[in-house]
Amino acid sequence: MNTQPISELMTRDIHHIEVNGSVIEARNMMDKYEINHLPVLQHGELVGILSRNDINQINYLLDFIGQKLDEQVLFKSLSIEELMTEQVQTLDANASTFEAIQIFSMYSFQCLPIMENGELVGIVTSKDLFASMLTTA
After folding, report:
1. Which residues pair with 136 in a beta bridge?
2. Strands laid side by side in the 37-42 sheet
3. 111: containing domain
4. Which of 28, 72, 129, 135 is deepest in the core (most CB within 10 A)?
5. Looking at the domain assignment, is residue 48 inside a domain?
6. How far is Cα 10 from Cα 25, in angstroms, rounded to an integer?
7. What residues are paired with 120 via a beta bridge?
8. Contact 109, 89 (CB under 8 A)
9. Does the pLDDT at position 41 exceed 70?
10. Nearest Cα to 121, choosing from 1, 5, 7?
11. Following DSSP, what letter does each residue of 52-93 receive, concatenated?
12. Are 9 and 129 spatial neighbours (Cβ–Cβ below 8 Å)?
């Protein structure tokens, strides 16, 4: 059982987007920083998570129904709030890596925002956990 504190594994340099930001801005941030998840904040409070899959699903849906729309026009017509996951599972910074593994095994998402005293202080992904397990094995 891995009891390493999640605070030792989490990414502290968090890129985020405001709820009133644009989908284009979010996708560009993901591309620039080579990340797949953006915490969504409103007045400094975590209100959701936007993933690259959330954005890609729109294109997949349009392809499936045979619609061809200009991506820029499409993304300008959608809001972060419409695409994000709202009820976000979080983890306290004092929690163990084992607790994070338990949460990932129960749900189908790929990242957990890490909170401390109600503030977003980090993020951990399933990829981070797998990499950690490989180095401790």
Report:
1. none
2. 17-18, 37-42, 45-51
3. 6-136
4. 129
5. yes
6. 24
7. 115
8. yes
9. yes
10. 7
11. HHHHHHHHHHHHHHT----HHHHHHHSBHHHHSB-S---EET
12. yes
Listed in sequence order, the residues at least 6 apart from 39 whose beta carbon sits closer than 8 Å to its beta carbon are 14, 16, 17, 46, 48, 49, 88, 113, 120, 123
**Residue owning tokens 């929690």:** 95
With CA atoms as reference, report the closest residue to 100 among 75, 76, 131, 71.
131
CA atoms within 13 A on the CB side of 54: 26
pLDDT tens sequence across 89-137: 999 999 999 999 899 989 888 899 999 999 999 999 988 888 877 776 5
How many structural domains are present in the chain?
1
Amino acid at 53: N
Structure tokens at 75: 């993304």
Indicate which CATH number applies to the domain containing 27.
Answer: 3.10.580.10
Closest CA to 83 of 109, 53, 107, 124: 53
Q: How many CB atoms lie within 10 A of CB 13?
A: 7
Residue 1 lies in a domain: no
